[in-house]
Specification:
Chains A, B: It is found in: Membrane. Two copies of one chain form a homodimer. By secondary structure, chain A is mainly alpha-helical. The first copy, chain A, is 74% helix and 0% strand.
Chain lengths: 541, 541
């Protein structure tokens, strides 16, 4: 009768006709694994070593083994890592939620230290890893890699993975460390964009003051435009909700609008070659400060949880994905003849990551401490160790970058590229598992419970909002004072502490007088108890 | 210096390297349009004609025009309709939310009428449209189409679009009509799967009783397995949440688990060649009956709104998409030499849809009425007209099916296929706009407010849960009674009304004695006020 399949296959096997059967199978496997990750993660929550990301990573690895065994070592195509999936769908909800739930007071109090770590720190790390790789890899046989490849290695391994940080540091237990390390991860996204732009027309023979100035200028331009875009999107959303929905609220529309506007800000930033991560992070901050107060109580509860849920699913998905992808047989094929080399390269890279991070955490903490008055505000040595340690993890961002660099246009066939890919995977797995597992115990060891509580009950008046800025910029006077224990002149102290107080005071005045009447926010809509981080919001206004 | 782009492009233009720049642009356009749809839809909410889907459709059309003009009639590739996107991502949240928020009492009270309409009705419509198309298209020049194509046309245009129904019928205003027309749309998904299976090995020369019985058997098998899968997924989710999370709740995990389990049920149904729509619909019903009562109060509010929001975004996206896609220039190229033909075909198809639906709504309503005792329970003529009218819309499902049938393997080049595609688009646009716009006024005209309120305040004891089943099955006695106004013998009445009462009574007993203690649910977890459709849940238990 010749009734050609077509028309009803869509309904029948639905996807079997339009996409292939394999993708339905893999979606099923993935969703089922996500469910099991959630359940197992919940059961292991009380465990002092584990966290959800490691659970997901291990489940992913086990599934990879099972798939390898059932397909007799042939499978690799179901689980190809896709940068699109990562950067378009998984990363935005994670970063947005981090901005939305971040303790704004902590974040802005340490703002300049965060910029310092994220910008200068990443640069230092980048140069150490790049130069180290050039020097060391020269001596062992790793296939053909040019200078561009080495600089790429530096860029891939210098960036802290903000998603990993979210997993190992607890915002409620160690708010200061969390805001510092996570904030650094957000800021260094902008750094790496600038870094790449600079390197594109970088000539090693013409490094002069203008190049450096241009570089610094570019960084600030990118940082400011990205931030501005995020703030603008957040304010626009707050304004729309406040103006349109007055007296006639619709929870579903409000929630949808917030989600879509946040996503739009991220995608716009990508379109304009800005840093999407910075943009969506600031969009989250602004939305939680204004828009969140303009919506119904139901919307408030819903948004708070739905952003966290989306972020939670994306994170779990990501680690599961990395775990499953790690065992992809194709990548290991080219390195199997020289396993010693791959292990060697991985160890060297891990060592460089350790050194590169140490090389900026300790000096920059010292600089930052110089600008702090009271001993409680200083980053003591124990905290410095935790900052160093907690930022060592390399995650999905590194894998995505490595794939993008070393697998394009079929270059995986080259031995050098294959070794780099497998080494990146090894470094990511090792750092996430080992550093990740040890972070919780390390914090417990270095910061006793009393000290951690002390961190929470810090004085609530933000004092050093801008003071760290003066530290590194006025590079001259550190040489004079020599160490952070020397009492600095009180006139200097005034200079350092007053601006931040002033800035905060005027910000509150400005916020109350101009921003809140237009964009809404706490106090300009009926107060609802039980808001998230109520104290924080109080602190920042 | 040769620093090859690669590594940082991911971070820089992020997607520009991995996917093409165009896709970032189109994501931006889409998200921005979605935002504007939400805002404009809110502004037009009070308008008595418009609804959100038509707003989205018009905005989509306008954007299509703008894109056509700016690209000087060349653009078509940004906006290609993808069945994958539709069936894997957009449809599941819409149907799941419908199941989750459906008034269960109404739905189960009319269960057999719904099955009747969805199964037998769709069949009748399918045959009328197929045969009509064969007869009429023979006489006009529409290119080469074989019998399979005509049967496909029947299948494409016989299915009510459940998404459209959600938009024009209001569950609170006309719960009976809503549950009937929407339920029909869900059930006829199973019908079309069976229909397709049957047609695959259908031999026109060997239609006998066994073929028909096999067909009926297949339908019930598919219906029951799909339903079972959905119910199983819902119960499993309820059980997991109840067992694992006792005493230690985590809202984010609960919400994530509910979303993922529901999606898993849909994808599993697709994998097993069942009806995913039926599965996810029943999964929603079971989740709202059990799992929803096991979670924290925050989760309850969050899930209620987040499912509605996801569904809302998916619906808006869909109509926007259809609107934008309609103006794709490539499709119209082949029909531009004979515009008269295309209009003719569209009109014929529209006429067939009208006739095909009338041919089952009125007779089947008559059958259904025969089984009802009280005049209030009967589907009066005015309601029949609304049922007929509200189910006339053809939407994205039709377009997806038409694309799948007529565009595969480059067949768009054939004139017959091109005409079918453009005609489908015309029918969809016309029916959604015209029928959609007129539905609200029609309901207002035919059902005065008092009557609509009367519908809401129907007696709360479900009486006719299974009674409509006896109507069509016991085909013998309608001939005896002749019309629905004749008083039927009381013994028959007892037969008809008792089973449903008994079923409901035993269901409640069973639910309270076995299901609720295991799976949780209302009364087995502390009562929380303000649950959605509280009365409904009360009614169903």
């Amino acid at each position: 009768m010749g009734f050609d399949v077509g028309a009803h296959l869509v309904r029948l096997g639905i996807v079997s006709s339009t996409s292939d059967h394999a993708s339905v199978v893999s979606i099923n496997i993935f969703v089922a694994l996500l469910c099991s990750c959630i359940v197992i993660g919940h059961l292991l929550e009380e465990n002092r070593w584990m966290n959800e990301s490691i659970t997901a990573l291990i489940i992913g690895l086990c599934t990879g083994v099972v798939i390898l065994l059932t397909t007799k070592g042939k499978s690799s195509h179901i689980l190809v890592f896709s940068e699109d999936l990562f950067f378009i769908y998984l990363l935005p909800p994670i970063i947005f939620n981090a901005g939305f739930q971040v303790k704004k007071k902590q974040f802005f109090r340490n703002f300049m230290t965060i910029i310092l770590f994220g910008a200068i720190g990443t640069m230092i790390s980048f140069f150490i890893i790049s130069l180290g790789a050039i020097e060391i890899f020269k001596r062992i046989d790793v296939g053909s890699l040019d200078v561009g490849d080495f600089l790429a290695i530096g860029a891939i391994f210098s960036a802290t993975d903000s998603v990993c940080t979210l997993q190992v540091l607890n915002q409620d237990e160690t708010p200061f460390l969390y805001s510092l390390v996570f904030g650094e991860g957000v800021v260094n996204d902008a750094t790496s964009v600038v870094l790449f732009n600079a390197l594109q027309d970088f000539d090693i023979n013409h490094v002069d003051a203008i190049t450096v100035l241009k570089f610094v200028g570019n960084f600030f331009y990118l940082f400011l435009t990205s931030t501005f875009l995020g703030v603008f999107a957040g304010l626009l959303c707050a304004y729309i909700i406040k103006k349109l929905y007055i007296g006639r609220h619709s929870t579903d529309r409000e929630v949808a609008l917030m989600i879509l506007m946040a996503y739009l800000s991220y995608m716009l930033a990508e379109l304009l070659d800005l840093s999407g991560i910075l943009t969506v992070f600031f969009c989250g901050i602004v939305m939680s400060h204004y828009a969140w107060h303009n919506v119904t109580e139901s919307s408030r509860i819903t948004t708070k949880h739905v952003f966290a849920t989306m972020s939670f699913i994306a994170e779990t998905f990501l680690f599961l994905y990395v775990g499953m992808d790690a065992l992809d047989i194709e990548k290991w094929k080219f390195t199997s003849d020289s396993p010693g080399n791959s292990i060697g390269v991985s160890s060297i890279l891990l060592g460089l990551v350790l050194v590169g991070r140490a090389a900026f955490v300790f000096p920059l903490s010292f600089l930052s401490n110089l600008t702090k008055r009271s001993p409680e505000e200083k980053i003591n040595f124990r905290k410095q160790i935790i900052i160093w340690w907690a930022g060592l993890m390399r995650g999905a961002v590194s894998i995505a970058l490595a794939y993008n660099k070393f697998t394009r246009s079929g270059h995986t066939q080259l031995r050098g590229n294959a070794i780099m890919i497998t080494s990146t995977i090894t470094v990511v797995l090792f750092s996430t598992m080992v550093f990740g597992l040890l972070t919780k115990p390390l914090i417990r060891l270095l910061l006793p419970a009393s000290s951690r509580n002390c961190v929470i009950s810090e004085p609530t008046t933000p004092k050093s909002l801008l003071s760290p800025l003066l530290g590194p910029e006025q590079g001259g006077w550190e040489a004079e004072t020599g160490g952070h224990s020397i009492t600095r002149p009180s006139s200097l102290r005034m200079l350092l502490t007053k601006p931040s107080r002033t800035v905060h005071y005027y910000w509150r005045k400005f916020d109350d007088a101009f921003m809140r009447p237009v964009f809404g926010g706490r106090g300009f809509v009926p107060h609802v108890p039980g808001s998230p981080h109520e104290d924080t919001l109080n602190g920042w206004r």
